[in-house]
Amino acid sequence: MAENQFTKGAESASRFEVKRYGYTLTFEISQDVLECHCFYEPSTIGGPPLTESELQGHLAQFKIKEGIVPESVASLLISAAGAKPVRGLLLARGIPMIPGKDGYIVINVTDDLAKTETGESSDGAAGTVDFRKVQSFMNVDAGDLVATIMPPDPGKPGRTVMGKEIQSPPGAPVKLKVGRNVRLDDAGENIFAEATGRVFFKDNEISVEDIYEINGNVGFKVGNIAFKGYVVVKGDVLDGFFVKATKGIKIHGNIGVCKIESDGDISFCGMSGQGTGTIKCGGSISANFIYDALVECAGNITADTEIRNSEIKCLGAITVNKGGLTGGEYFALAGIECVTFGSRTSLRTRAVAGVHYGDLEELNSLFNELKRLVAEFTSAPKGTVDMKEFAKKRVAITERTQEVRSRTYEQCNPKINIKKMLYEGANITLGMITEVIREERMGPVSIIENSIDGGFRFLGMTPLSIKAHVIEQTFKMTASV
User: Which of 121, 126, 142, 470 is the most core-located residue (most Cβ within 10 A)?
Assistant: First the structure.
């Protein structure tokens, strides 16, 4: 070991005593050699007091040289000159070492469920605690920086009152294992995601998981879910919670008054939305039943038993295998097939097939815009309206309306298949034609638009895969012969 280094435990507390004719001076060194206290006792039989040069000589003799406190030296000399004793005066103070800080990890991902800065909970109540936020969902995309490993700090060495260096123990490096779907860069500093998913830490291992499985219900124990990946729920989703997943959702149980959202497919047993539960799906939906729900789906919707009192907007086909569509509104660009449609209790049931619901909403918005424009024009005082500007705005709305109406979609199929019973009072729209059914009609039947005579055609049922325009083209060819 170097001579000018101090190792903890290598020395113990020390006392150095100097006896002179006029006084006794004692230096007491602490066990950690970081403090030197002095004791001064003037002689009872007379003699000269301690002088500054003598003090400096005594300090040099015992190698006490670091952190001498000038104020203490002055106080000691004044007391000595006045023949006053000194007890435990701190004469020198060393420099304590500072241990190195351990390495740590800086997470570069934010929580997708983090509350806003205003402190509002998910239900909008300011200043309240959202008990549905149980977990953090640190979601990433492939290539994202997940975390940065900070190296340990070497610490800062100290110095004893005798001038020896006190070594500082360095901090410990981070103990980290690189798990699935992450990689460590060549410098060993940054961790990047290699897949889209959620960042997980377990047993000093960091990984990105793209499947999140819940063994029970989504309730207060699990909390809300916002996951970049595929979610599997082996129980139910209880009222008031939401589940969002980018790649798809599979729920083995039922869904309550909840918000369910995914860019992929969604499957579940059943849903009782009580008029406010919602599903937004970028893929297709499969379920046993759907009651009182608001559903928006980019693909097909298939229910095994029944869909009732719901508002369904679908860019694929709506199919109910064993039951019917009862109450509510159903928009399906690629057609509708069910066992029964409507009800004997006159429960309002409306179906719109072969229409893009987004286009329909846009047309309604344009119609209202034109209506407001005309109302402003007619109510304005005579001579205050620029006719050219009014005509320009009206033409622009008309052109936008024509553009929306001219859109075509490959999956468009204005066709409804009823396997067993079409009830009186049901409201059906195929393309641009709307009719209210005046009397019950037994199935199986396919309903398409009659482009020759107007109204609807009721035909023997054919699969939805045989599109309405193909069937109608056959009638047109026959009529032209």
Answer: 121
